[in-house]
Amino acid sequence: MRQRILARYPSHGVYGEELGQWQTEAEFVWVLDPIDGTKSFITGKPLFGTLIALLRHGRPVLGVVDQCVLGERWVGANGETRLNGARVRCRGAARLADSMLYATTPHMFAPGVEERRFARLRDRVKRPLYGCDCYAYALLASGFVDLVVEADLGVYDYCALVPVVTCAGGRMSDWNGQELTLATAKDCNARVVAAATESLWAEALSILSGSPWRMPFERLPARLGPAVTFVLGAACGAALTLVAARRRP
């Protein structure tokens, strides 16, 4: 792929998983992942895929998910996503409680804050499912899945998926709601959320991003959680008592 691209478009850049980067400051940059889902590939599960993205000024404008075994190819560009030529659209559940959630594996989330935030979201959906790699995002674009939440991803893992999801009417960002581009790749901590609707995306994001007052305490060991809650409650109670006493004539 790299050789064909550079032979046809010598001024373009290439960012590949296997052979590194070339001219990534160019206006147009291709992001390539020949086999997304290596473990699926080597174990014979036909849910791996080839990912191809074209970025302009660092933003994904074209995305391709190709599954050669099943003969399926999703292409997202110019405001629409097509599967083997037929247009597809996201169709999300109305509520998080009715949603189907995919992640490649529950073990991809780092122990601690990341793992706990995913667990909170997982416990709010109708059914968590695992094991599809890039194919889960294609299913979301086709209207079969409501949410995909993952971590520990590289740029080549998600750039092609952004146009496939968003051009089908979905929403995709990092866990803080930040746009997924080449420039922000280091800031997103490789955590990605894709949703079939704006409302599901916002609801999932409110759980994954963490509220400002809660974030520092998430880093504490789980056994200290009740103690922290008790201390905060006691402090608030004492403060309210003091305020009430000062207001008395």
Short overview:
It is built from nine helices and 13 strands. The protein is of the alpha+beta class and 249 residues long. The radius of gyration is 21 Å and the shape is globular.
Walk me through what this model shows:
The chain crosses the membrane at residues 224-245. Mg(2+) binds at residues 17, 33, 35-36, 157. There is one protein chain. This protein has 249 residues and is α+β, with helices and mostly antiparallel strands. The protein has nine helices and 13 strands. The chain folds into two domains: 1-88, 2-Layer Sandwich (Fructose-1,6-Bisphosphatase, Chain A, domain 1), CATH 3.30.540.10; 96-209, D-Maltodextrin-Binding Protein, domain 2, CATH 3.40.190.80. 31% of the residues lie in helices and 27% in strands. The strands form two sheets. Strands 2-1-3-4-5-6-7-8 form an eight-stranded mixed sheet, with helices on both faces. A five-stranded mixed sheet has the order 10-9-11-13-12, sandwiched between helices. The chain is globular and about 50 Å long.
SSE layout and pairings?
Layout: H1 2-8, E1 13-16, E2 20-22, E3 28-36, H2 38-42, E4 49-56, E5 59-67, E6 72-77, E7 80-83, E8 86-88, E9 100-103, H3 113-122, E10 127-130, H4 135-141, E11 147-150, H5 155-158, H6 161-166, E12 171-174, E13 192-195, H7 198-208, H8 215-218, H9 225-247
Parallel strand pairs: 1-3, 9-10, 9-11
Antiparallel strand pairs: 1-2, 3-4, 4-5, 5-6, 6-7, 7-8, 11-13, 12-13
Keywords: Hydrolase, Magnesium, Membrane, Metal-binding, Transmembrane, Transmembrane helix
GO biological process, one term: L-histidine biosynthetic process
Organism: Zooxanthella nutricula
